[in-house]
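A reminder from the course coordinator: this example appears on the midterm review sheet, so study it carefully.

Given structure:
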């Protein structure tokens, strides 16, 4: 679970994952890079929790980072879809 690395570790991974998600999915997002990085942190925390709870990978494996980037991308896509519907 998240306690294996600590919350700070997941936040740091989330910062990088959010930046990578922005590079992978360029475009204009309301809130800019700050919102994207916060979404990356949320994605990292979410996928870290899910991945460890379900047993997809063990703490410290490279899958931690990959899951964080995937989580950031998923949350960024959802964020963009929600904002498109409002516009």
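Designed residues:
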């Amino acid at each position: 679970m998240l306690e294996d690395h600590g919350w700070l570790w997941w936040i740091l991974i989330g910062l990088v994952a959010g930046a990578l998600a922005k590079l992978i999915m360029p475009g204009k997002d309301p809130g800019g890079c700050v919102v994207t990085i916060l979404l990356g942190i949320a994605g990292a925390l979410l996928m870290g929790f899910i991945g460890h709870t379900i047993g997809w990978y063990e703490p410290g494996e490279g899958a931690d980072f990959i899951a964080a980037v995937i989580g950031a991308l998923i949350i960024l896509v959802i964020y963009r879809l929600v904002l498109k519907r409002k516009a």
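The first helix runs from residue 7 to 24. The chain has a mean pLDDT of 76.
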